[in-house]
Predict the 3D structure of the following.
Amino acid sequence: MLDHRPYRRVRSGGPLPPRFALLPLVACLLALTPLAQAQHWQGGPPLAVPRQEIAAAWLDGALYAIGGFDARGGTLASVERWRPGDAAWETVAPLPVAVNHPAAGVVGGRLVVVGGYRGPFLANATDAVQVYDPTADAWALAAPMPSARGGLAANVLDDRLVAVGGARDGVSVADVAAFDVAADTWTVLAPMPTPRDHLGVAVLAGRLHAVGGRAGGHDHDAVDPFTLAIHEVYDPATDAWVAAEPLPTGRSGHAVAALDGCLYALGGEGNRADPRGMFDEVERFAAARGAWEALDAMPVPRHGMGAVPVDGRLWMPGGGLVAGLGATDHVDAFTPLACR
């Protein structure tokens, strides 16, 4: 009987039952197609500076790691860049405003960094919008966000960078606004139904998915407001949000990205069953089926890193190795099984 359960664990390898004796031949035939590529993890060159609570993005053939905390909890202005094939990361022009817990996206050939905390630690949320020109290796300040917040998430939807959620003064917010880089203007959008920070967002089929996070300063009916499983979806055509299938493993500080028609949630913190407080779960949501499934776990569980889709892989620079402060220079990439 076919398994139609919405949540399944997918693992690579393992012995085959006798009734599936012909499967190796089928696998050999399928290996001739890209769809047969097994999921796997690979390492990359370490960051020049260990960092967590960063923003990450892909621009003009390079992966960027932006701001964050250093190993002692200092807020960083430094920005690193790596091109596949290079042996090491290079440092580019620093941010005008040092921030931890910012968000970022690429619009119109520019890297746009929004919000974050100026520090110390999670103090002094900012409304700063910092725009990087890779040709000039220079930053400029743009029109500020309508509201200051750190621990937010952002993604590009309809050629605008949409900044979602976050917190200020220890209280999670539901704020959502879209930035038009060319016009240097912001438009306030419908707020999220659930105020939260340390969430992740990604765009699938023209809609923005907001997944997980934590709810600071709010009464909440979740078992643990530090590890929300909430999944809400924004439709720009109606400027409205709807609830979707919850994340199987509630968490915060995780990375979220879309790749080839599926949404991925990776790592995160708040795991009370782990002595480090970390989640190693990798779970993905197929919009076509409206269901989640589990993939191979992270070999180096982290939180506060980015996940950037590039050529069928998700690249993840930096992050924290333990809940709270524990910055690493680790960089790895996940190649998943084909989305279905």
About this structure: The longest strand covers residues 55-59.
